[in-house]
Design a protein that fits this description.
The chain has 444 residues and is of the alpha+beta class. The protein folds into three domains: 135 residues, Sandwich (Immunoglobulin-like), CATH 2.60.40.1930; 37 residues; 255 residues, no CATH class. Helix content is 17%, strand content 32%. It contains eight helices and 32 strands. The strands form ten sheets. It has a four-stranded antiparallel beta sheet, with no helix packed on it. Strands 6-5-2-21 form a four-stranded antiparallel beta sheet. A four-stranded antiparallel beta sheet has the order 7-8-9-10. A hairpin with a 6-residue loop joins strand 5 and strand 6. Helix 2 packs antiparallel against helix 3. The two termini are 16 Å apart. The site of one calcium ion has 8 residues, from strand 2 and strand 21.
């Protein structure tokens, strides 16, 4: 029980290098103007500097007057089809990230949070390593991780790949079961995998990961629900219907890409509240399998969410999509299983600039969460929380930098015994805000 006390913090500063300039309030233009003034603004260098300032200000004015088309585009939650590098870091296949046009990608749910939610692996010391997630839906509820819903890509932790799960006060809970969907759709082999989801007015709009024979629904082919179809289900009345058939999706995609394009599997679904269009992503063509399409205007690309807008350095294919309606400061770790003698870095992103924050550590999480805004719940066991964290408060509390980021570094002791540590960051400025919790399986 004393092991995590030995996690010794080695970096006193919270500010990342990228935030230093923003924190000073002096952007490049102001600095340049100051240099010119101190030189009397008379020499050629000073004149060149003043000219550069004018060019910069004119450019700024143009940028402000010509608002880009994507300025109206929403923030989306996505998952990629494989591990990807991007200019501001990396994303694991199983992780969920936020994409706002013109803003670096930010992780919403890292592997270490999903692993904590999935629980310990049977017969082992370690938690379940999440495979992948699909069928994202963010209902925008204030508490408990926004009540975020998702499905798994393969059966894990006792959950089936056709189940709709939700982050709740009890951890993960089942909202709609695969069995209920199988019955509702009349799927003949008794098995399906849900891969896209939108919940509206208590009704589900969704897509399946594979073609399924059905006794109740026909799309382009009699008695078949295809993986490119969008289907509706009202759990109250039991009604099921086609929203879009695969061929209708092909037509929407063809209107954007190349005539006759076959989109294949539909892999993500959301609603654009700006214009009411359905947003979706598809398996092909490969030039646009990382793009977000809309049903608006007979088929279009969502401004600011085309494949190249994500900045992925690899193939850049999306396999889950949702409209982001909840927001929280997010926590990540440099290594989910740090070995003895290594350095562990815990990183906070998305806090308010200069927000005072406290890193809390516990040996366990508890189901008795108390409600908070943002991600929603403090999940740490309270006894160890106070013993381990509050005693070390001076070194664990930091001020977020001008970009809303902070980090904590620890030397993992050489004599470390295997231990699970759960970390979460709490804001002094807004005591009802907490980050997502992350699981660290140290020395394991
Ligand atoms: Ca994925
Ligand atoms: Ca699934
Ligand atoms: Ca299944
Ligand atoms: Ca599908």
């Amino acid at each position: 029980m004393t092991t995590s006390v030995m996690l010794r913090r080695v970096t006193p500063s919270a500010a990342g290098a990228s935030g230093t300039e923003a924190a000073t309030g002096a952007g490049p233009v102001e600095k340049l103007a100051g240099t010119a003034a101190s030189g009397g603004a008379s020499g050629p260098k000073a004149r060149a500097a003043v000219g550069a300032v004018r060019v910069a200000l004119v450019s700024l004015g143009l940028a402000l007057s010509a608002s880009p088309a994507w300025a109206q585009s929403p923030t989306l939650l996505v998952s990629t089809s494989s591990n990807e590098l991007h200019p501001s870091g990396s994303v694991g296949d199983e992780e969920i990230v936020w994409h706002t046009p013109g803003v670096p990608l930010r992780t919403a749910l890292p592997t270490e949070t999903l692993s904590l939610l999935l629980g310990p692996a049977s017969g082992g010391e370690l938690h379940i390593l999440p495979g992948d997630v699909d069928a994202l839906h963010d209902p925008g509820e204030a508490a408990l991780g926004g009540g975020l819903m998702f499905s798994l890509v393969s059966n894990q932790g006792g959950w089936e790949d056709g189940d709709v799960l939700r982050i709740s006060a009890a951890g993960l809970e089942l909202v709609w079961s695969e069995d209920a969907l199988v019955t509702a759709l009349g799927v003949t082999d008794g098995n399906l995998d849900l891969d896209a989801l939108l919940v509206e007015d208590g009704m589900l709009l969704f897509s399946l990961a594979e073609d399924e024979d059905s006794t109740l629904l026909s799309g382009d082919m009699p008695g078949v629900i295809e993986d490119g179809d969008v289907v509706g289900w009202d759990p109250v009345t039991g009604a099921v219907w086609h929203v879009l058939t695969e061929s209708a999706v092909d037509t929407l995609v063809s209107n954007v890409v190349a005539s006759g394009s076959l989109a294949g599997d539909l892999k993500g679904l959301a609603r654009n509240h700006e214009d009411g269009g359905l947003l979706f992503c598809v398996q092909s063509p490969s030039s646009h399998d990382g793009a977000v399409f809309s049903t608006s205007m007979g088929g279009s690309l969502l401004d600011g969410h085309d494949e190249q807008d994500f900045g992925f350095q690899g193939a850049g294919e999306l396999d889950a999509l949702g409209l982001a309606r909840s927001h929280w400061s997010s926590l990540g770790v440099s290594d989910a299983q740090p070995a003895a003698g290594t350095t562990l870095v815990i990183t906070l992103e998305g806090a308010k600039p200069s927000e005072p924050c406290l890193l809390l550590l516990s040996m366990a999480s508890e189901p008795s969460w108390f409600d908070m805004g943002g991600w929603g719940g403090l999940v740490l066991a309270q006894d160890t929380l106070f013993n381990l964290s509050l005693q070390a408060l001076p070194s664990l509390s930091v001020m977020a930098d001008g970009m809303g980021s902070a980090n904590w570094s620890f030397d993992v002791p050489l004599a470390l015994q295997p231990v699970d540590v759960v970390a979460q960051v709490f804001s002094f400025a807004n005591p009802h805000m907490a980050t997502n919790p992350v699981l660290i399986e140290a020395g394991q």
